[in-house]
């Protein structure tokens, strides 16, 4: 029973985290699409809301997903299995992307390197999540 409860908490936290990651990508795309000297009320309000969502919801959800996930892996004895190592690569990739995007959101502008990655961030997120879910469901690798 405890396993199912913790698994549910892990899945819900991951969903909220990934939704926040997507919102951050969209907010940064809105920032990057406006001219340098223009700050419209729409993008300004969008950025404020995205920052608040990231700080108050998405980042804590990421931490909950990490902590509960680590507990589930340890209690299941899955550290030796290949699928969890592959899944961990995807989770670390998403965590790193989240950190880069959150920092850019706080600064109000993406760095040049991140600005080049930004158009592909949604695809990278989607593909990583699909791989993580496939590995978690099938436990195959």
Characterize the structure shown.
Helices cover 86% and strands 0% of the residues. It is mainly alpha-helical. It starts with a helix and ends with a helix. Helix 2 packs antiparallel against helix 3. It has one domain. The chain is built from four helices and no strands.
Sum up the structure in keywords.
elongated; 141 residues; mainly alpha
Shape: elongated
Total tally of structural domains: 1
N-to-C span = 27 Å
- The H-and-E topology, N to C, reads as HHHH
Q: Could you estimate the helical fraction of the residues in percent?
A: over 70%
Number of continuous helical runs: 4
Beta percentage is under 5%
| Alpha-beta content class | mainly alpha
Radius of gyration: 17 Å
Number of strands: 0
Average of the residue pLDDT scores: 89
Biggest sheet features: none
Low-confidence stretches are: none
Question: What is the secondary structure topology, with strand pairs?
Answer:
Elements: H1 2-33, H2 41-76, H3 82-107, H4 112-138
Helix pairs in contact: 1-2, 1-3, 1-4, 2-3, 3-4
